[in-house]
Design a protein that fits this description.
about 40% helix; alpha/beta; 6 strands; about 240 residues; binds manganese (II) ion; 9 helices; six-stranded parallel β-sheet; Arginase, Chain A
Length: about 240
């Protein structure tokens, strides 16, 4: 199914919250009927509807992204709302618009994986909120396990969010804010396999594909679709 904004556009913030309220109720409905919520989103804001639909009090977030997505209106250098979804999902940014009415995930139940392009205010915020940050190098050094063990003590299930810009530029050029030095698809799959070994994965979102930036071979689209299939396979076989 496709989820669209329920009313006319007024502001970006109200559009994001409106569409995510619809997404949250659809996720709730899917879970209640025994279906698995798998979302292909234009940007990372879908995390709001996913977490609210899955019950924020018992859900850990494992967030794969080259960027922090942890800015607030006070720290953002760009003003982009798309740089704030993880901060909004945890109530750090725009709390009155989202987390207070809809619920926010405890930031200590969040693992951020693959960051390599953080703004200074995000580095401070991630540390201040005790988010577990696992860089690409940390991941290769086995640093994911301790972070997962810590969040598993605070949650009954995990929501896995993959911004495909976490992948290396060479395999996923079709994103708006590409950053070199990223992960291979197999590294993401292996990391999600490790998540599923610790907590049941209750929902997956894969976001931020921009067809206008993809190459002629459709490298990112192909990689993204393959990755979604593999992630569902990983999650379904637990
Ligand atoms: Mn993102």
């Amino acid at each position: 199914m496709t989820i669209e904004r329920p009313g006319p556009f007024t502001t970006e913030l109200s559009a994001v919250t409106a569409v995510n309220r619809v997404l949250a109720s659809e996720v709730r409905r899917a879970v209640a009927s025994g279906s698995f919520p798998l979302v292909a989103g234009g940007n990372c804001n879908v995390a709001l509807g996913m977490t609210a639909g899955l019950d924020t009090t018992q859900t850990a977030i494992v967030w794969f992204d080259a960027h922090g997505d942890f800015n607030t209106p006070q720290t953002t250098p760009s003003g982009f709302l798309d740089g704030m979804p993880l901060a909004m999902a945890t109530g750090r940014a725009h709390g009155n618009a989202w987390a207070r009415p809809m619920g926010g995930v405890d930031a200590r139940a969040v693992v951020h994986v693959g960051a390599r392009d953080l703004d200074p205010g995000e580095v401070e915020g991630l540390a201040a909120e005790d988010v577990h940050v696992v860089t690409c190098d940390d991941l290769r050094d086995g640093g994911l396990a301790a972070a997962l063990a810590a969040v598993a003590r605070r949650a009954a299930r995990a929501y896995v969010h993959v911004d495909i810009d976490v992948l290396d530029l060479a395999v996923a050029p079709g994103v708006d804010f590409a950053s070199p030095g990223g992960l291979a698809p197999a590294e993401v799959t292996a990391a999600v396999t490790a998540v599923a070994a610790v907590l049941p994965v209750a929902g997956v979102s894969v976001t931020a594909y921009d067809p206008q930036r993809d190459d002629e071979a459709g490298t990112t689209r192909t990689t993204g679709l393959d990755l979604m299939c593999e992630l569902v396979d990983v999650v379904a076989h637990r």
